[in-house]
Amino acid sequence: MTRVIHIYFLLLSTTTFGVAQNINLDSLKQLAIEEANLFNYQNAADRYIQLVNLDSTNHHYLQMAAKYSFQSGDSKSAKEYYLRLEEKEPDNSTMLNHLASLYEQEDNTPKAIKYYTKLTKLYPDNGLYFRKCGVLYNKAGEIKDAFSNLAKAHQLNPKDLSAIRSLSGMFIKNNQLAEADTLLWKGLKYDSLNVGLMLLKATNSYKQKAYDSTAIILKKASGRVDLNNYYNKMLGYAYLQIDSFDRSIVYLERSLVNENNPESAHYYLATAYEKLEDTKTSIYHFEKAIEAGVSTNISLYHRNLARLHNQNNQLKHAIKHYEDAYRYQKDPLLLFYLARATDMYYKDKNVAIRYYKKYFDSKHDNEEYKTYAKERRQYLKEQQHFNGK
Length: 389
Description:
By secondary structure, the protein is mostly helical. It contains 21 helices and no strands.
């Protein structure tokens, strides 16, 4: 009799515990749903992970915990829960999407590619995942895989402008300018006001030295977005090349605002102001280009300054800049210019004589200049002899 009573109470307690557990699960589930409906995603995630701890066989709870962690911005927990879910449901599309996105956000490119690639196999007709793979392969420097995935994305969805932009950008970088043109025209035909496509089209035209087209496209884009320094400089240079000097100056000046590398903009401005016969301002910008100079063009800036000073009969300054230009680039022609400038400036002709000789002994192939240098040097030496020097 005692044994029967013991078994009865054991069965009763087990049943009561089961009912209590079900009640606890139901109340927690309802609470999790309410928190989610109120957009309290972190609280919802916490409730669902409690449900997971109570019933680890229910994969739905784990997925919801991961989902709401993801939506709350708790990427660490979201990744942890999705990786646990992956062991149970390796083809769960939400899990694959969110893991791909999480790894992409943290710049773990190989892992992001891994999960987007899985999605391309699950959804071979969805161009989005091929585009994602293409962009990431490009970021990783795997150009062949980038091209193939982006081409597939464009084939599956010709209206995917992001795929067109990425693929066109790669074509431009690879100097496949005709291919880029074809794609960009398609994109702009579909969305003529897409600023990203406009800027790429302008870049492509610029690389082809189609400066008229570059100016037209960038001017249109500037009506929709503030151009950054790079594109202001590009537009300024395009106007410079089509002899629209006043417009060129406007955009080149804009490109100097908070610009860390203003060298080329100052050079273009110097050129534009010279074309407008504003020598003083031109000289100012050539000097600023030298001051900012980090490229191999320093000699060019000094040559231009020497030429402008020479034109203004400021021979002392011209000589200095010819000397600086020669210091940066051993062009024998600069020796000829130095010989003539020092010949005109100094009463003592020994400096000019030395430069004429150095030029004559150089490998420069201008026979007219060589003849002049030889004869002028000989004449100056004769004059010194006659003057008793």
